[in-house]
Structure formats: structure tokens, C-alpha cells
Amino acid sequence: MRTSAVVSGVLAVLLLVLVAAGWSPLVSFDRWVAEALHRSALAHPGFTRVNRVLSDWVWDPWTMRALAAATVVLLCARRELRAALWVAGTSLVAVGLQQGLKALVGRDRPEWPDPVDSARYDAFPSGHAMTATVTCGLLLWVLALHWRAEWRGWAALACAAVVSVVGVGWTRVYLGVHWPSDVLGGWLLGWFCVALAILTYRWSERRPARTATAAPDGGTPGRRMGEER
């Protein structure tokens, strides 16, 4: 998990720099993909409506935040207060990071003479992609903590999470409200938040155990009774 956090963080920073600098190969690729998908969206209005429903309702950030809030309530009911705090805190930090980067980068969204959808705020990173990644990642982590070994539906839910994360990214580009690199940035930053949350949670669990076994004078823990010398 540490490697995953480092890799996703480094790639996210690199992409951020390229986007902020307006690196021409990336800009050209974004424009090429966006234009091709926009032509398809205009040519297939029925499929476009399906994408709008998925993007604006099923995978909307507020839908994802509602799932995260429900998870926090469930964890509190089970007296899993530490995990509840991590889910709530990570979700809030992700929102702050997302909005801060949008304001910092100030990237314009695609503009079309005949748009099929609209969106507010700046483009990078994609809020839909980042929120879906954070929420789905945290939900899978919570399930892995408690029910993975005994729940047969784990694989199905993991597939649904992957489909949701990938699918919402697709809809944002297909509907012409994001560049592909906006979505990639949302995925990378979202997974970085999840990986960092898992790492800090594990560290917080190990720390009390280490403190409890430490010697009263701050030295090394004493040997347990019956342990070989």
C-alpha cells in the first residue's frame, strides 16, 4: 500500500505539472479524444441521455458522498469510531484537495458550439472521478476490514466499484465537460487519498500497541514471561 500511495502521488504531481504548464502533446491528445467523443455524443442522443443519467444521478458526487455518510453512520452504530473517523476525514480532505487544485490550476473546461451537458467550476481534476475513486475505495476497504472473508458477494461488489470509477470517468469525457487528463488526475488523486488513509489507519492501530508494550521508563519493552533468553 505504501508503494501504491507513492506511485499514485508522484504520477498525480507529474500530471498536475504537465497540465499547469500546458504541455502541448497532452493538450493535443486531450483535444483529439474530446472532439471524437463529442461527435459521437451528438450522433447518438439516446446513448448520450444514458450517460447523463449515470453521470448526474447514479455516479454523481453527492450520491457518492451519501454512500460515504451512510458508511460512517453504520460504523458508528457498530462502535467502529476510528474507522468512521477515517472515512469521514478522508472524504472531507479529498473534497478540500479537489477544490483547492481546481482553483490553483484554473483549467478551462472544453467548450462546444453545441454542448450536450454543462458543468461548473474549473476542470482539473475531475470531481466526479476523484469522488467516485475515494468513496468506492473506502467502501471496499471497510468491507475488507470486516466482511471480506465471510461475504460471498465481495467479488461482485469489487467489480461494481471498478465499473463505477471507470464509468464515471468515461461519462465526463463523453459528455464533453472534462478533458481525459482531468479524469486521470481525479483517479490518481482519489487513489492517493485512499492509500494514504489506509496507511495512516494501520499506523494509528499499531501505535497504541507499541505504547502499551513499551517500558515505563521509555526503554525497550521487557521480555514476556517464559520467553527464551
Describe the structure in your own words:
With 229 residues, this protein is an all-alpha fold. It contains eight helices and no strands. Helix 6 packs parallel to helix 8. The longest helix has 34 residues. The radius of gyration is 21 Å and the shape is globular. The C terminus is likely disordered.
List its traits.
8 helices; mainly alpha; 229 residues; 0% strand
Quick rundown:
With 229 residues, this protein is mainly α. It is built from eight helices and no strands.
Helical residue percent? over 70%
Give, in order, the helices and strands.
Answer: HHHHHHHH
What is the molecular shape? globular
What is Rg?
Answer: 21 Å
Distance between the ends: 35 Å
How would you sum up the major sheet?
none
Give average pLDDT, whole number. 90
Separate helix tally = 8
The share of residues in extended strands comes to under 5%
Helix/strand/pairing class, anyone?
Answer: mainly alpha
What is the total tally of β strands?
Answer: 0
Unreliable sequence segments: 219-229
SSE layout:
Elements (H helix, E strand, L loop, with lengths): L1 H20 L2 H20 L1 H14 L2 H17 L3 H25 L21 H20 L7 H21 L5 H34 L16
